[in-house]
Amino acid sequence: MAKVTIYTRAMCPYCSRAVSLLKKKGVDFEEIDAGRDPAKKQEMIQRSQGGSTFPQIFIGNEHIGGCDEMMALERNGALDNMLS
């Protein structure tokens, strides 16, 4: 499986939804709490080329966007292929 990294912040319903889907799929992922860590937030923004909202999700080195984008990939049947 591809390495998944998700940048989150506390009390973020979109973050919770995205993490929940990854757990439901049995995906191992790295969750980085960037909400209270300015250096991690800056890393997230730089890595996503300007994405400053939460969450920001990466599959391998590919930035897929946030929760809405990941849910769209799931609806279209493309997420499983990206994860494998």
TrEMBL record:
SUPFAM superfamilies in the record: Thioredoxin-like
InterPro entries: GLR_AS, Glutaredoxin, Glutaredoxin_subgr, GRX_bact, Thioredoxin-like_sf
A Pfam cross-reference name: Glutaredoxin
Cytoplasm as UniProt keyword: yes
PROSITE patterns: GLUTAREDOXIN_1 (PS00195), GLUTAREDOXIN_2 (PS51354)
Domain called Glutaredoxin: residue spans: 4-64
Claim: NADP is one of the keywords in the record: no
The entry's keywords: Cytoplasm, Disulfide bond, Electron transport, Redox-active center, Transport
Domain of life from the UniProt record: Bacteria
Assigned protein family: Belongs to the glutaredoxin family.
Described purpose of this protein according to its UniProt entry: Has a glutathione-disulfide oxidoreductase activity in the presence of NADPH and glutathione reductase. Reduces low molecular weight disulfides and proteins.
Name this protein carries in UniProt: Glutaredoxin
Classification of source organism: Bacteria, Pseudomonadati, Pseudomonadota, Alphaproteobacteria, Hyphomonadales
